[in-house]
Amino acid sequence: MRLNQASDFALRILMLLADKKAPMTVEVIAGNLQLVKSHVMKIVAKLARAGIVKSSRGRSGGISLARPMAYISVGEVVRVIEADFAVVECLRAGQSNCVYSSHCKLRGVMNNATRAFMQVLDQQSLQSISVPLPHEK
What we know:
Blueprint: H1 5-20, H2 26-33, H3 37-49, E1 53-56, E2 62-65, H4 74-81, H5 106-122, H6 126-129
Antiparallel strand pairs: 1-2
């Protein structure tokens, strides 16, 4: 299974917020992670709607974690960011064009594989994957 780039970016954003502990602006996050500001804005908006990060305005405002990092699972983040977990056509919503759809065993195998993949991600918290950014010299 391959996750989209936004999931990677979301996890890096959260790791940075966990490392820095103080609220950060979108501009600072984008600069620290060398990401495009518009991408960071879209990802942060999704994470905020899901209650993973919070945003505050004002001089001491910015983006910060909404909960302790031990209570944010990697699986939760991936589910918020990923739009589609269908690794084969027959797992997509709607009608499948596959001629094997009515009697195929692949669907069950792929469903089980996806479930197992997400179970591993659910077992990892943001705390378990976070490491400080290397300091610049």
